[in-house]
Amino acid sequence: MEKILIADDVPANIKMLGEMLRGQYEILVATNGEKAVKLACQCSPDLVLMDVMMPEMDGFTACGLLKSAQETSGIPVIFITASNEEDDIVKGFTSGGVDYITKPFNPTELHARIKTHLEIKNSRESLKQYSRTLETVNNELNEKNALLAKALEQITRMASTDHLTGLWNRIHMMEKCREEEVRFKRKKRPFCFAMCDIDHFKKFNDTYGHECGDHVLRSISAILKQSVREQDVASRWGGEEFLLLLSESGVEGAQAVAGRIRQQIAGSALSYNNVYLSVTMTIGVAAYDQEDGIAGSIRNADLALYEGKNGGRDRIAVYKKAP
Q1: Catalytic annotation, pick one of 86, 240, 252, 291
Q2: Which of 10, 118, 129, 268 has the lowest tally of Cβ within 10 angstroms?
Q3: Is the pTM of this model over 0.90?
Q4: Mean pLDDT along residues 140-165
Q5: Domain containing residue 245
Q6: Any idea what the CATH number is for the domain that residue 205 is in?
Q7: Strands (E), 8-92
Q8: Does residue 140 carry a catalytic annotation?
Q9: CA end-to-end distance (rounded Å), the chain
Q10: What pLDDT, on the 0 to 100 scale, is given for residue 167?
Q11: What separation in angstroms does the CA of 154 have from each of 48, 119, 165, 232?
């Protein structure tokens, strides 16, 4: 049952209002504004019928206190008074009242106004609860979306990464090559490919086992990651072959990067099970050729690689297009 607080210093008014409302609402009574504020804080009534003129604290002051406190600010206050002065009516609404009823009371009007403001209050509370529910659901959705985005990022990364070395795989490399080709057509900035192959890699597998071969691949991949610039792309192309995409770089710059990588690998102190491993790499460099396209330019780097292999390995070879 909804609770209504009657605040009035005249017992006859309290009795009359109580008889009008009893049976439909639980009635609470306060004989001045101060007691009304205290009782409202303690009992949280659904509505307050507040007399304007009361001793110690008038209804306007009491209403202002109720509206200023968070726990009672949502309680509707209807002023009841014998005065129908416009200034008093304005003051009532200014202090936070929702309605103004003059004495003597019309029971039908009183019930109608009480019912209206209780319905408004309940609707507001329902909307607040609905808003809180939506906020909770929205927060949960945001959390789930964040988890899904993270999972998708992980899946995408896994689909684009070589599981053994952690380098980008061939699929991702081709995507980056196409992006670089579009950039080249727009800005005409050159880029190069470097095809890298570990010399005599088979001997590591045959002599020390495939785990040793995997160790070499991971170690070389770490060196490649550290040796390229942020805008470059290092990928495992297949087996012991690696392909580097050197963005906005001419042949001379690509040759310098390849030479630095070759020296770092040759000077690396790799070992496996306390056995020193002498590892070298041959690298073929080719500039992107718009006529040959991506596939043809990579093939050119591969041709340069085999030229380096045939020339004795552990060296850099640059593709030169036939005139």
Answers
A1: 240
A2: 129
A3: no
A4: 86
A5: 170-318
A6: 3.30.70.270
A7: 26-30, 47-51, 77-81
A8: no
A9: 99
A10: 94
A11: 59, 51, 16, 22
